[in-house]
Amino acid sequence: MLPKKIILLRFAIAIMVLFSFDLSAQKWLRNFNLFTIEDDKAIGLQVSKEIESNPAKFPILPEKGNEEVYKYVHGLTNKLLQSGKVAHAKDFAWQVKIIKDDKTLNAFAVPGGYLYVYTGLIKFLDSEDQLAGVMGHEIAHAALRHSTKQMTKLYGLDAIRQLVTGRKDAKMVEQMALSLASMKFSRKHEAEADDHSVHYLCGSNLNAAGAAGFFKKIKGKGGTPPAFLSTHPDPGNRVKDIEYKAQELNCRGDDSNRAAYDKIKKLLK
């Protein structure tokens, strides 16, 4: 009799082959995720360690001496998480780190709720609702598990093989981890993250369409496209869709908190 793990592997391969000929099944496969919640948490922890051990590429702004800035960013994160609309709000770490790089206009999230925002982006934006919109967008990527869905597509049968046989290729795991910090999301995932950013902020005092202000400003910058847009492609009609979603949900918040935001920007010198 064949070992149970080999049977599972053959079954997984058969399912993928069968589904490749069925359009509705192909749509299901695009959202399929081989990784569990625990996998997301473990991968995120590993990637966060990789990031923090590479100060040349990811110079993390120390919390000591920057307490007020971190308190502000953590407050925004908690506002979003406490909306009651974030999946895995209590499962994931939701750790936020600021990367000291004034030239890079970017933010990113890795599985398990590890969030990173660059000082360049904070200084570039004009108001709290814009930053909250970006952070809501990144939280959505982690909460909706977009990275591990992308990894499922990228590594497919190799990932299945490792999961069902229990054999882990250290080099492949490292490759997966390193690819996450620069992973390019699909336009579908981008639209979902935009949409959820509005949902998270709706009901707060802030303008729920804050992400629209961010995209207006970053797209109007000119010159070389910012790093954010290289990994977060425009799904089309992005600003219009974000503003429409806020109207559709009847979001009433309209604060931008520019004065408080300007104070934080001045602390980042």
- The class by helix and strand makeup works out as mainly alpha
Report, as a whole number of angstroms, the end-to-end distance.
67 Å
Largest sheet: 3 strands, mixed
- Give the overall silhouette: globular
In total, the number of strands is 3
Helix content: 55-70%
- Ranges where pLDDT stays below 50 over 5 or more residues in a row are none
Radius of gyration: 20 Å
What spatial order of strands do you see in the largest sheet?
1-3-2
- On the 0-100 scale, what is the average pLDDT? 84
The fraction of residues in strands falls at 5-15%
Order of helices and strands: HHHHEEEHHHHHHHHH
Helix count? Answer: 13
What's the helix and strand layout?
Layout: H1 4-19, H2 23-30, H3 37-52, H4 67-81, E1 95-99, E2 107-110, E3 114-118, H5 119-124, H6 128-143, H7 146-165, H8 170-180, H9 187-201, H10 210-219, H11 227-231, H12 238-248, H13 258-267
Helix pairs in contact: 1-7, 4-6, 6-9, 6-10, 9-12, 10-12
Structure characterization notes:
By secondary structure, the protein is mainly alpha-helical. The protein has a domain at 31-183 and 256-267. Helices cover 59% and strands 5% of the residues. It has 13 helices and 3 strands, in the order ααααβββααααααααα. It has helices at residues 4-19, 23-30, 37-52, 67-81, 119-124, 128-143, 146-165, 170-180, 187-201, 210-219, 227-231, 238-248, 258-267, and strands spanning 95-99, 107-110, 114-118. Strands 1-3-2 form a 3-stranded mixed β-sheet. Helix 1 crosses helix 7, helix 4 (67-81) crosses helix 6 (128-143) and helix 6 packs across helix 9. The chain is globular, with a radius of gyration of 20 Å. The chain starts with a helix and ends with a helix. The model has no long low-confidence stretch (mean pLDDT 84).
